[in-house]
Specification:
The chain has 337 residues and is of the alpha/beta class. It has 13 helices and eight strands. The N terminus is likely disordered.
Length: 337
């Protein structure tokens, strides 16, 4: 028995090596996360490809005439850019080019420039006035717009800037919204003021203002129940919340941000109009631009209302919400590199 052992051992050695433990594999290098520009371009791909395909179909080996420009205007309107901006883009493309061929890339460059020009006046950062403590931000919007998630992402941004943040779970109608905000509070280290589901939202907000003052919070972010803009009784309740805030601080809320879901397209126009009247909206946040071919609605909103667009969102990750940049948006929706 003992004579066979070396032979077997030698055979195993020749077949499988020396028997020494195999070296641990090198850890796989983690792929670097795409830049914000790459994510924005990818997120707006559905919007840019629908416009880009129209440009390719219309301007490839074809001399520019009134019919082509009319069809191009239809492409832009279908992309929800709005008639005034669509008209300006078409006029810019047609200027001095009738009867000539024009390359698709040139059309895209003109499109990007005109969209950027329309958006520059509204691409404004959200400025936290440190003289107002806490700086009260009221978040409004319809159900499903991404409002509660946006609050969490903003809390993460403000905390990363070194600000002391508090959250108020004012959507007392939905247990899921309260829980969701509590999760974001844990992630960001921000205390969350809550009451049981079904509690009076204005009472909760009153408490939250007191607690934010006591804690010396820099920013208080207040969630509200998602309200369809055509439900008058719910909008009246939102007005009550605002009255309670003003009783505590007549200058508050210092910012009222309407969160809009880009996938609703033209319906966003009526949301801005009604929330603007009822809640005194001071700025916009647009989410879900990566889930729609209707990203052009942001341009139509800017043209019609002129409200600041503070942030845009293109995904679920905490850093998928970024300050709005007009030039980047113009280039991305035109499909430029």
């Amino acid at each position: 028995m003992s004579d066979d052992t070396p032979k077997k051992s030698g055979l195993l050695s020749r077949l499988f090596g020396t028997g020494a433990p195999a070296p641990a594999p090198e850890p796989l290098a983690e792929a670097p996360k795409p830049s914000w520009w790459q994510r924005l371009k990818h997120g707006l791909a559905r919007s840019s490809s629908s416009i880009g395909q129209g440009i390719t179909d219309l301007f490839t080996k074809r001399k520019l005439d009134a019919g082509t420009l009319e069809e191009f205007e239809d492409v832009l309107i279908r992309a929800d850019l709005g008639l005034p901006v669509a008209t300006r883009i078409v006029e810019a493309v047609g200027k001095g080019r009738y009867g000539k061929e024009i390359e698709g890339e040139e059309v895209k460059a003109i499109l990007a420039a005109e969209v950027t020009r329309a958006l520059i006046p509204v691409a404004l950062p959200l400025v936290i006035d440190t003289a107002k403590k806490p700086f009260v931000i009221l978040m409004v919007g319809v159900n499903g717009s991404g409002k509660t998630t946006t609050i969490g992402k903003l809390a993460a941004k403000f905390s990363a800037e070194g600000r002391k943040v508090m959250l108020a779970a004012g959507d007392t109608f939905r247990a899921a919204a309260i829980e969701q905000l509590q999760v974001w509070g844990q992630r960001t280290g921000a205390p969350v003021i809550t009451r049981p589901q079904g509690s009076d939202a204005s009472g909760l907000v009153f408490d939250a203002l007191d607690k934010a003052n006591e804690a010396g919070s820099d920013v208080l972010l207040i969630d509200t129940a998602g309200r369809l803009q055509n439900r008058t009784e719910l909008m009246v309740e939102l007005e009550k919340v605002i009255r309670v805030i003003k009783k505590k601080d007549e200058t508050a809320p210092h910012a009222t941000l309407l969160v809009l879901d880009a996938t609703v397209g033209q319906n966003a126009l009526s949301q801005v109009e009604i929330f603007g009247k009822m809640a005194g909206v001071t700025g916009l946040v647009m989410t879900k631009l990566d889930g729609t071919a209707r990203g052009g609605i942001l341009v139509a909103l800017a043209e019609k209302f002129g409200l600041p667009v503070h942030f845009i969102g293109i995904g679920e990750a905490v850093d998928d919400l970024e300050p709005f940049n007009a030039d980047e948006f113009g280039r991305a929706i035109a499909g430029l590199e």
